[in-house]
From TrEMBL:
SUPFAM superfamilies attached to this UniProt entry: Fibrinogen C-terminal domain-like
Organism expressing this protein natively: Mytilus coruscus
One term under GO cellular component: extracellular space
Name of the protein in its database record: Angiopoietin-related protein 2,Angiopoietin-1
Signal peptide: none
Entries under InterPro entries matching the protein: Fibrinogen-like_C, Fibrinogen_a/b/g_C_1, Fibrinogen_a/b/g_C_dom, Fibrinogen_C-term_domain, Fibrinogen_CS
Amino acid sequence: MCINRNPSNTFGRRTEEERHLLCGFYCTEGSLCNRNLDCGHTYPSECADISFQKDGVYNVYPKGADYPKPAYCVIRNGIKWTVIHRRFDGSVNFSRNWEEYKQGFGNVKGAYWLGNEAIHLISTNGKHKLHIDLELRNGSRFYADYSLFKLNNESSQYLLNVTGYSGTAGDSMDNDTLDGRANGYNCARKFQSGWWFALCNFSDLNGNFTKYVPGVLQKWYMNLHYAAIIQSEMMITKY
């Protein structure tokens, strides 16, 4: 059903497989439409493939995945993004093992990690960019954009390629390739988190720093000092 007389897109459901398809629909002069869906066999691999007008949880089908993955989708300045990380309080424990970071955890409507495997499948299906929003304890807000974001497969230990920084937060990730090996392993244990480390410095949005700064779970190297982050959101989209 729609209250719109203009052509648009929506989800249909292919009942025999119980999967959402990308479908076209057209509204007539009446208020009802969607009687005859023109459905292909293309599933949305990420939020950018979905026609939606409101931020919320939608099922995506990353290329290569055998099952749908709930993801939080947002629209910012007309661009549709897939949220891969959101954290705003300590309600979700981010001190997890390898398998949990691979599959994802948390509440997709709240604080959560989408999952390394899903992030890998999405970010390697065409070119992708990364946007990060940060909020400090004093209420100040900053952002970081990276024009290239790609997470490699599990056999590479989810090696991260990220470059092309711009923004107001300072560049704490643009290291071309960041991973969890060697020094990263000790950093992960030290800060009780899964992250891409460069000698434990610069950033860790999945960490637990309460024993260093009370009430602070995350850090970001900003303007020659470490900023105490209380809220963060990471999102990717293709271009």
